[in-house]
Amino acid sequence: MAGRAQKVKAVLLRTLHNHGTLVLPNAWDAGSAVLIARAGAKAIATTSGGVAWSAGLPDGQHLAGADMIEQVRQITAAVEIPVTADIEAGYGDRPEDVRKTIEAVVAAGAVGVNVEDSRAPGGPLFDVAAQAERVRAGRSAAARAGLPELLINVRTDVFLFSVGAPEGRLRDVLTRSSAYAEAGADCLFAPGLTDLGTVASLVKESPLPVNVMAGPGTPTVAELASAGVRRVSVGTAISQAAYSVAYRAATELLTEGTYGELDGALDFAAINRMFIR
């Protein structure tokens, strides 16, 4: 069962969602979480893609749920700030699967979850009623785990996977938002939505506060905040950058025997100090 300290973090995460725009850098292991916390983050979200890559696997529920939960446990143990866990589609289609996953994630120390409505990468999506039932199971699971304050961020992939005709996507997302809100969700995550006008329309009409996935080529945090977005995360973007440096530096070393890709890195002592508690 969740203890007092975890409940305090859960309430803090909710408070951060209720005031201004919460910026959530995404971590993939304990080390990245520590660095993100040192950078000044008020809370951390995990990224399923980054977690899977750290295990040598592709994203998309190729990593076993138990292995993901263990990574969440290590991350929550490494930082003092609230952690919300990306549980992909819940590691199973049934509401019971979502319930079990959320109970395990709460036991691992998380105070929020991100659960998506895609059955598999690229689709298809769960129908609205089925996903709402899965959200309802998650809400019940949080209460059973002693953390009714758990923040449930429901991801819909309508925009990300270009589901349906373009002119109907916003209405589809709003229908889903209403159903998910009624089922007990706290926030709506709409990755793939980058047009600021459409973002503003979603924010205005959605019964749930909106989370947008940002990164190069998307509106800035300030622009998203002006449109009323309450939560900004970056998905796999930071882990992509880290793995890109590793790949390019190794390639340069092995082919050219030079070290240009390593220029600009923090020195050993600076990084090492960040891990001293």
Q: Which features would summarize this protein structure in a list?
A:
nine-stranded parallel sheet, 277 residues, TIM Barrel, alpha/beta, 11 helices
| Tally of individual domains | 1
Cα-based radius of gyration, to the nearest Å: 19 Å
Q: Write out the CATH superfamily name.
A: Phosphoenolpyruvate-binding domains
Helical residues, percent: 40-55%
Please write the CATH class name: Alpha Beta
Which class do the helix and strand fractions yield? alpha/beta
Residue stretches low in confidence (pLDDT < 50, at least 5 long) are none
CATH topology: TIM Barrel
Q: How would the global form be characterised?
A: globular
The end-to-end distance, rounded to whole angstroms, is 27 Å
Helix and strand pattern: HEEHEHHEHEHEHEHEHEHH
Named at the architecture level, the CATH assignment is Alpha-Beta Barrel
With helices defined by DSSP (H or I, 4 residues minimum), what is the helix count? 11
Q: What fraction of residues sit in β-strands?
A: 5-15%
Q: Report the average pLDDT across residues.
A: 97
Going across the major beta sheet, what is the strand order?
1-9-8-7-6-5-4-3-2
How does this structure look, described?
The protein is α/β, with parallel strands linked by helices and 277 residues long. The protein has a single domain, classed as Alpha-Beta Barrel (TIM Barrel), CATH 3.20.20.60. It is built from eleven helices and nine strands. The protein has helices at 4-18, 30-38, 48-54, 65-78, 95-107, 128-144, 169-183, 196-205, 221-226, 237-255, 268-274; strands spanning 22-24, 26-27, 44-46, 83-86, 112-116, 151-155, 187-189, 210-213, 231-233. Strands 1-9-8-7-6-5-4-3-2 form a nine-stranded parallel β-sheet, sandwiched between helices. Strand 4, helix 5 and strand 5 form a beta-alpha-beta unit. Helix 4 (65-78) runs parallel beside helix 5 (95-107), helix 5 (95-107) runs parallel beside helix 6 and helix 6 runs parallel beside helix 7. The chain starts with a helix and ends with a helix. The mean pLDDT is 97.
